[in-house]
Specification:
The structure is a homodimer. By secondary structure, the first copy, chain A, is of the alpha/beta class. The first copy, chain A, is 45% helix and 20% strand. Chain A folds into 2 domains: 70 residues, Winged helix-like DNA-binding domain superfamily/Winged helix DNA-binding domain (Arc Repressor Mutant, subunit A, Orthogonal Bundle); 113 residues, Rossmann fold, CATH 3.40.50. At the A-B interface, helix 1, helix 5 and helix 8 of A face helix 1, helix 5 and helix 8 of B.
Amino acid sequence: MNKQVSKRTLYRLPVYLSLLQEKYQEGVEYISATTIANLLGLNHVQVRKDLSCASTAGRPKVGYATDVLIKDLQNFLDYNNAKNAIIIGAGDLGKALLGYNGFTSYGLNIVAAFDNNPVLAGTSVKEKPIFAMEKLPRVMENMNVHIGIITTPAHTAQSIADILVKNGIKAIWNFAPTSLNVPDDVIVQNENMATSLAILSSKLNEKLKNR
Amino acid sequence: MNKQVSKRTLYRLPVYLSLLQEKYQEGVEYISATTIANLLGLNHVQVRKDLSCASTAGRPKVGYATDVLIKDLQNFLDYNNAKNAIIIGAGDLGKALLGYNGFTSYGLNIVAAFDNNPVLAGTSVKEKPIFAMEKLPRVMENMNVHIGIITTPAHTAQSIADILVKNGIKAIWNFAPTSLNVPDDVIVQNENMATSLAILSSKLNEKLKNR
DNA sequence: TCCTTTTTGATATATTTTTATCGATATATA
DNA sequence: TATATATCGATAAAAATATATCAAAAAGGA
């Protein structure tokens, strides 16, 4: 366990986890790497290798005990150890994320949003408050915030990132379609939907052409 | 040009494109692979190789003409050739996507959303209509829809996918945190936010531990 | 009890992706 | 006009990732 985990493996672990939770709810007590691989369209050796980073629950001839594997994955991904996050930019996407409670099961607790628009300041979405930008330093200090989620338009994203960094944020989840310039010790994860869309679109095109 | 494009390259092309558009607006007429690489934190050989798939605009000592490169990328990614899409599931996320007009510049035209909830049927978001599920076959037929976007909860996603496939959809953009079972000739692109979050969270953890 | 089957986990091989090296080319300058 | 330099594009090397093979372990039936 705790071998070095490749980036790609880390990408797949949450996928396994959600499949396992689904299967567990259906009453599946044991599941083999081969079954998982077939369900997800992956190679069974790869699945076994991936899982070996986080768990030793596998037993020959039996497979993995679903509940143990789920716990091991949650533990490995640190989903039990919730981290506080704030959203900057309470537009459509920002509000959608603010109101979505599903992230708590991934160890993310969104505590508030911030926006420059004075009309939004003071309002809330599902009891999560939206503040004016000026309040950011104080909220960050009081609530032990680790993660900043940027959902502003591209042209303001960099200045927001600068503010977050100045206030001590160490991880940024960036939904703005632009790349951010931050100090080396700050982590940025870009959620680039355009990119996903490009893949889909390109595959579709190829298909439409080959007819 | 038109060499075989790796999946990873395809992921990066839209990122280059948006950077280039930004730079072009700032008045940058020529840009070198090295400059791009530095701005995005990539290797300059990789950038050159990636771009070579879509363009031959590069000139020694000069770099790439920004406007030509932008056109070549748009052309390669087929962003000029818009495709119609529908959204299934008009919850927070579905509505956010429906109201977001930014996808048109990526060649995606969202024409309508569908939802089982009778309260939503007949309403609209930014002039984009929300229909009852029953209307799906007729809308798909009339509007030449190619792409289905699933923003329902995980437990209904598979049945929605089945309906889409039955009505002739050939590409699905899946935001539900579950994997879909579809015929081989249907393309699925999963937009798994949990996965991005896992990466961010894991890196953050490592950082927090190493202090 | 012994054999067969299924499955894990380790090791080895193959493939993909990234990075380094190098010659060729265009531009600017002396 | 000759020379220096930045840059491209191609090829080669290195690194990362995925797949195949195989022995060992566990379960179930003969």
